[in-house]
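re: ur question from the group chat, yeah i did fold both. here u go
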Amino acid sequence: MFTNSKLAKSVRLACAFGAASTIGFVAPAAAQEAAADEEAVEKIQVTGSRIRKAEFASNAPIATVGAEQFELTATVNTESLLNTLPQVIPGLDRTSNNPGNGTATVDLRGLGTNRTLVLINGTRAVPTTSGGTVDINSIPTALIKDVEVLTGGASAVYGSDAVAGVVNFILKDDFEGVQAQTSYEVTEEGDASIWNADLTIGGNFADGKGNVVFNMSYTDRDDLFQGDRHFSSYAAFDDGEGGFIPGGSSGVPGTAILNGMFVTFNEDGSARPFVTGGDNNDFYNYAPVNYIQLPQERHQITAIGNYEITDNAEVYGRAMFTDSRVPQQLAATPIFQTATFSLDNNPFLPVATQQQISDAIGDGVDTDGDGIDDTATAFLRRRMIEVGERRSEDSFNSYQFQMGVKGFIEDSSWSYDVYYQTGKVENSSVQLGNINRGRFNQSLLLASEGGNVIVDANGNPSCANPSANGGTVGCAPMNLFGPGNISAQAAEFLRTAVASQALFNQKMFAASLAGDTEGWFELPGGPIGLAFGYENRDEDFEFLPSQDLAAGTIAGFNGAPGLAGGYDVSEWFVEAYLPILEGVEFADLLDLELAYRSADYSTAGSVESYKIAGSWAPVESFRIRAGFNTAVRAPNIGELFAPESEGFPGAADPCSASGVTDNSARVRDLCIATGVPASEVFTNSIDPASGQVRALGGGNPNLKEEEAETLTVGFVYDVTEEFSFSLDYFDIEIEDAVSGAGTNNILNLCYNDPVNGGVGSAYCNAVQRRANGTIDFVRDGSVNAASITLTGWDLIASYNTEMWGGDVSVDYLGTVTDESNFEAFPGAGVIECAGNFGLNCGEPTPEYKHRMTFKYGTDDYRVQLLWRHVGEVNDDDDGTDFSVEKIDGENYFDLSGTYYINDNYRVTAGIDNLFDTEPPLIGDNQEQANTYPATYDVFGRTYYVNFAATF
């Protein structure tokens, strides 16, 4: 299969200047070729599975995670391994319950999953969401040969979205034999288990001209609840003195009125003051029933094949299918709603309570003149435990099919590759536990006469409006006053069935030609390598919600209106590799890489990107390298076409007790001017519920592309045959970034920035408050106004030697982040996230992180100790009295080993989090489970075993 020496030359050049489409068809048989080809083949192997060889073959920093790491760590979900790389800031993973959508993502440098391009064998994977994010659950782990992580802009080579870089999953396409393996992991507590089994069958046919690989796998992941761990069994509040107290939500099972009365209700309907402080406060502990590990059931089938139809042509294909079911679960719905309820003669309320409410917040109409108003209106906060927990049942079905032909133009060094691929992802979701807001209001107004509620002979009231109001049963009166008092009939009336379906389709055609100028023009270092290509891609997305979900008339999960949109793009690219000098004094190698791409989008119009990179090796063991890229990201379907929808990001209200950073007269007056009653300014009564604020955002069809400039400068030094290292500086600047200002940032700019904020400013106008002063919503739409700056250093080192009767290796990956800054618009305050975490920055971005492995192996076994360090970070909201100022650095150690029983059987066993390190407790600025569970281990010491049989 392409044992021609022309292939070796073509692949050597392709590896040098980044033509990923060529790398995929290097055959193992090439290693068995004649001596004339051995030099070229050796150079190809530099981009193999070992980080040292892959890294030092490129003019840009590349980290390669090889199959050995997947084996030693018994990886089932790929993101868990990728998140150990220091270049990666964790995206969504198995702990992502809220926020989360059932997918797993990868986020290079923390620049966003939409700025990280995911490839499979050098070609685009099918996105899952309207934002273009790829669910890497759809990539079969058992077939991964390498994962190559290229950081820095790569749009000139791969197109849009490669602003932060690319993650390229290279699959096994030459497997021969049968391999069956199964793995099981479980925590020391005996929970959070994951079981996986897969079968791979592959073989050659037609006298070695063809090969087919078939894989099928099954994954079963158990749930784990926050209540199963002591550090997450309650929602923690900061106590203002560096400690924590039990906290939670003001949406309580007994109903709370935190304006006007500041009370909650007992089971008998009597009212008492709402307790906001101390260990025995009245906040509802929503944590125990929330997932800390999402359950998953996944089926995958993959087939890869190729066949050499002539000496110079090969057809190939790949078909991938995944069915992944990942539910989410949250505590019962908290409804926060201004509502009018029947008061006078209400059988659910004692007369004394009726009088108390009437005196405080009655509506002023007393028809029968008994001193108690007929109705009252209040902002009610109620935890609907009688309706049940909120649960989202998500099913993802995806397939991707690719078919192509590649080969050589006869009697030349030029190769071609033409392929077509199509893919589809279907996400079906059913939500349980939502309630209808209209029916909530309806069930509070009871039938009355002369201002008094009418009851039957048994003292039972009926609804003033008995209709079903869009439901399946008629209205049932709701006793909202006291925990557990909502009847089964009322709960059934309130429930609403919510479902949605999302479809993402991708079609792509690509053709490329690569070769060199050997025989007609050569530089002193050799012939010039060239590649030309054309790509056409069509992507469309449709989101079809049920009526209540689309209208946003539910409480529970977020409302989400329908969405339909798409685009097509045609792209041309050219790349060149210029070996200027080679093998001369003071220039063992001097080369230059050039790339240019032009793309025409049906939405954003024409965009361009280019790359200039080069290296100089004065001697064989030392090489200086540098690269400058322009990168682009065209706005995705969601950013362009999404109608306004709601979300609930973490945010602090500067006018409330928990969010105030400046209690000056200026801010007090501004709070009053923007709708906060004077008596409520800087009080707990207007604290955002659960530390979250409702945000409204939508698409903008006038968006244009983001533009980025990326610079990398560094060197590679082979100190000895055993020890090598590289050091690279990176600088990424993104302009016209598509973004909202950020909910918390908008609030800060409105109230705490005297220059850009204030009454009448765009930021204060974006904040809408209710009559009681609480925030109703913050409008945060997408515009091309933000800028992002990221700078830092990557250090990669590798030491390999023979000692103690075996092979010893030490591999190190370290990243220092100097700057990670976000500016919502020119002149706005810069949010600095290097070394920070919290409401503005989100996931912790340490200034220093590393991944280091120590390995020892013989013919019979291998042992690895993995050391992962997450550096210290500071709270980006540390100006308040209620925040954790710093999270100390954390160290995690994982021990694993593989024993080869014989040529056919092997067993791998390991312990993750060897020293049972607990996650840091954060409190108010948590993401989930009082911490950031994708960054810090929440499972504790975990054991795993994998058994594999190969024939």
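okk and heres the other one u asked abt
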Amino acid sequence: MKNKKPGLRGLTLSVLASTLLAALPAWAVEPFTVRDIRVEGLQRVEPGTVFASLPFRIGDLYNDEKGSSAIRSLFGLGLFSDVRIQVSGEVLTVIVEERATVADVSFSGVKEFDQDVLKKALRDVGLTEGRPYDKALADRAEQELKRQYINRSMYAAQVVTTVTPTDRNRVNLNFSVTEGDVAKITEIRIVGNRAFSESTLRDLFDLNTGNWLSWYTKSDRYSRAKLNADIETLRSYYLTRGYLEFRVDSTQVSISPDKQQMGVTLNITEGDRYQVSSVSLEGEYLGRENEFKSLIAMRAGEAYNVEDVTATTKAFTDYFGAFGYAFAQVEAVPEIDRVNKRVAFVLRAQPARRVYVRRINIEGNNRTRDEVIRREFRQLESAWYDSDRIRLSRDRVDRLGFFTEVGIDTQPVAGSPDQVDLTVTVAEKPTGNITLGAGYSQAEELSIIAGIRQENVFGSGNYLGFDINTSKFNRQMVLSTTNPYFTPDGVSRSFDAYYRTTRPYDNQDGDYRLITKGVSTRFGVPFTEADTVYFGAGLEQTTIEDGKFLPQAYLDYSNTFGKTSNTLPLTVGWARDTRDSSLVPTRGRLQRFNTELAIAGDARYVKANYQFQQYVPLTKQYTLAFNTELGYGKGLNGREYPIFKNFFGGGLGSVRGFEQGTLGPRSPVNGLPGEFINIGGNRSVALNAEFIAPFPGAGNDRTLRMFAFADVGNVYGPNESLSFSQLRASVGVGLSWVSPVGPLRFAIANPIRKLDGDKIQRFQFQIGTSF
């Protein structure tokens, strides 16, 4: 569709005619010296604006050419609808008629958009309050409004502009919109396919003909950008399955006369399916041919796969870069044998010249200090260019979380063929926030959450935060600060001060509490780029506060060791996270190990827990996920393991289908004969497996997914053996949604292995949990 500018030609002719007519009185005037210049007709425009546009001043020689030039200059300002120059003796009078200005822009009939959004769109084309009114500009604004509706598949939208004159030569503009209904895709056809069914290919698309969830995904609304993305997905599907010569011949989009229904037709040519016959090297490979051959992803006898070709050329380029060859050129040249349906690849490489990095420049960090970015760099100035170190540096800067974008450009140094400069460009984002919200789960019920956090205090890269949680069973106040570079080598240091109150989940009526308060410090030592080991120490005091329905086990412990326990816990931990996302991971692994050791104080114990997660992508849409969590605690120096350090199991994050925190040993309740309450144990195990799939109708939207799961686990006391016969198990289905308030998960579980007295809860939900 060609862009049209209604009224532009008429406006040009009008200006030209006005110019000619206005210039007539000045023509045939004998040149003279200007004695005075007067301006008439101004209402809002400053006289200085007119005088600045005139090509003559008092005392200058005036002639016909200068008069015509003056009129053209004044019309060029866009402020006047008419300009004339009158000559009276040696006095020039410039008579102008100002354009009307826009007093107000309003909309009627608009439901799809917020009016501020539309006003911004009109402002971008030059139409806003206080600007001179221009019919051509109003027409452009009208077309812009229609474009905004077309972007939302509302092709039937009609816009009528009403201009109402008002006082002081102003006008009010009203855009009356008849929105109509959304045009929906009713048909998607793929013509020319032979190897794969049309339904298989359509399932690759984000666009579809609609389903019961289209109100959320809007997948049946046509978008050129989405269609282009789907075409690329289709092309990739064929090119990764051997169809070397696949192409999309044409794309046809049709719309019904009432502009309510749309059809999309793709005409494709699959071509033949090719196998790789051989892969050979040509060019200069630094005497490391065998090392480069090990990077080849293509294999003779396998079907052609464009991803293997791309991965190979990228691996070659990166490997050249690791030796300082920043401008190496690698090309995979196919030699096609159409008779036998085979293709041989010749990898041609030219490493060019080896270079080193002269200077690293940083741009865009208006708040963050240079040193915060530079200390993440593994590529050094005056060192040989190393693509691996540059890529690692870029990832480390990105993982800081201070920037929305991080890019690194390599620029040759003029006059020095063996030098390059690196320019790091960052786009900062706000790193401080004040949170005030509420959360709800069946276990915790309603909780108020508040916090003040600054992840980049004064641009130093340090963290400072204060958090409050007021849930029914677990309340806390935590003050934390972290210096990620306490030492130049990247050792981090953190301080925490906390106050927590907890009590078992299934004692709904008890008013006793466990009060824990303390301070701690820990250091994180990066042993490798992927592994960090944590060391820490703290002072902690835990008090068993008497109350109604206190479990007998808590009473016995407080009678033996006292109600208050002071400890000096030492902590050691290790973490490695290679997942592709922390919210919606589809591949990668997470491992965490933490140990707490108390060797001084009233309680002596060791407590350890280990978590392992593995995500295996089956296809682009389906993922298999595994989770294992193990916990172990033991008393030291002949003392019992502190009951307030127990593990709990059951519910989301453990074995679904059982009430939160109800697995494991039980204790009689003081004051309630015959009643027992779960108090947790010193050992725990939880095994989870999930098959994750897109939610029906959501297409490839990763923020809304469903899953089937199987859970196994239990909690054991110090006097219980780790018997497999005591393990509980459940299976079920669930839904995960990355909602505006956080990750939300629902689960419907059926316990398939339970024992007498277990508390079952088949439906469970929570915000901010995994597995």
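fwiw on the second one: Residues 8-23 form the longest helix (16 residues). The first strand starts at residue 32 and ends at 33. idk if thats what u expected
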